[in-house]
Design brief:
Helices cover about 45% and strands about 0% of the residues. The protein has about 70 residues and is an all-alpha fold. The protein has one domain. Helix 1 packs parallel to helix 3. The protein starts with a helix and ends with a helix. About 0% of the residues are buried.
Amino acid sequence: MPFTAVGSDLLLEVIHRRDENGATLVTNNLPFDAWTSVFGPERFTGTLLDRLTHHVHILEMNGKSYWFSWHKKP
């Protein structure tokens, strides 16, 4: 579900305030180049990714999703 402009701005503010103060964990099933479908304009998404990937360890998990297997629709 795409963010609104206000929601995107608030998320960026949270990430900005967390920077250098503690750990932040973000999970997503999309590659970085598809994040614009959620966060909107490339400029904003680039800024968000820049903040998130500063001093970061990226763990890419490939395989079956536990969440999807647990939340199957009837």
